[in-house]
């Protein structure tokens, strides 16, 4: 790209005259290189996979299940006579994830990639991979579910009426691991606005409503007489409440002038 053209792009889209420091994330987004990603975590039977699926319809997402990808990679490491046994190395799973995302981008598809958990031993190892490859996390969701609900789901899944001592101890250990995971993510992703807690021991209808309340776009339509000037007030409100102000009249004028 010619230097003159690049300078024109900066002037038009990045307002270089008012920029005081380099914004690599903004520049990558302009070039179409920025990859939005999120991760959903939670203890076993907390409903994190359901939450990940529901999020796809709200943020144009695509679920990345690293456990399933690991299983697929394992098949390529063995043969029909000698199937692969053992744990698939994380780097091979990571490479498969990158190949999948690169294939989407080659087709011109753009998604918010939602990781349904991860296979890494520590959350910091996962974030090191994800943030190193894709940039800052868009958001992460912690699926909170009371132990009583977890126990009821366990009994239903395993067709049993009781929770034995061994199972109770296992569920308690899973809770500790889930809490430790959240603490690690809080440290690895220090932006508090990225963390979203979702209560999952509710009906599916309530869960869907709660997720829409968190992620669905909010639209406020301001109707007024044309003789009244409201652009400044609306723009100030949009800035105050972190919204995007669109003036229909200005859009129409822009298209006519163009």
Distance from N terminus to C terminus (CA atoms, Å) equals 24 Å
Overall number of domains: 2
Rg calc: 23 Å
Strand content: 5-15%
Task: Put the structure in a nutshell.
Helix content is 54%, strand content 10%. It has 258 residues and is of the alpha/beta class.
Structure description:
The protein has 258 residues and is an alpha/beta fold. The chain folds into two domains: 31-215, Rossmann fold; 218-258, no CATH class. It has helices at residues 3-14, 24-30, 48-59, 66-77, 90-106, 123-134, 147-157, 165-188, 204-215, 231-240, 248-257, and strands spanning 36-41, 61-64, 112-116, 139-144, 195-199. It has a five-stranded parallel beta sheet with strand order 2-3-1-4-5, sandwiched between helices. The radius of gyration is 23 Å and the shape is globular.
For the structure shown, list the relevant keywords.
five-stranded parallel β-sheet, alpha/beta, 5 strands, 54% helix, Rossmann fold, single chain, 11 helices
List the helices and strands and how they pair.
Blueprint: H1 3-14, H2 24-30, E1 36-41, H3 48-59, E2 61-64, H4 66-77, H5 90-106, E3 112-116, H6 123-134, E4 139-144, H7 147-157, H8 165-188, E5 195-199, H9 204-215, H10 231-240, H11 248-257
Parallel strand pairs: 1-3, 1-4, 2-3, 4-5
């Amino acid at each position: 790209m010619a230097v003159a053209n690049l300078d024109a792009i900066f002037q038009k889209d990045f307002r270089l005259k008012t920029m005081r420091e380099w914004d690599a994330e903004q520049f990558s987004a302009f070039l179409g290189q920025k990859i939005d990603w999120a991760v959903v975590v939670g203890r076993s039977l907390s409903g994190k996979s359901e939450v990940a699926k529901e999020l796809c319809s709200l943020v144009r997402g695509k679920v990345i299940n690293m456990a399933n990808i690991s299983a697929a990679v394992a098949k390529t490491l063995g043969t029909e006579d000698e199937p692969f046994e053992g744990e698939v190395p994380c780097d091979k799973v990571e490479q498969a994830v990158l190949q999948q995302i690169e294939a989407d981008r080659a087709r011109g598809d753009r998604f918010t990639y939602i990781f349904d958990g991860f296979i890494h031993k520590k959350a910091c190892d996962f974030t090191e991979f994800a943030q190193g490859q894709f940039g800052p996390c868009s958001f992460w969701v912690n699926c909170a579910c009371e132990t009583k609900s977890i126990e009821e789901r366990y009994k239903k899944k395993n067709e049993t009426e009781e929770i034995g001592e061994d199972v109770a101890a296992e569920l308690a250990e899973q809770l500790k691991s889930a809490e430790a995971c959240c603490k690690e993510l809080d440290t690895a992703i220090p932006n508090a606005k990225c963390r979203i807690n979702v209560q999952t021991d509710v009906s599916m209808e309530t869960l869907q409503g709660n997720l829409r309340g968190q992620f669905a776009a909010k639209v406020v339509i301001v109707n007024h007489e044309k003789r009244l000037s409201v652009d400044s007030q609306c723009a100030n409100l949009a800035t105050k409440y972190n919204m995007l102000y669109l003036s229909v009249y200005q859009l129409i004028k822009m298209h006519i002038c163009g």
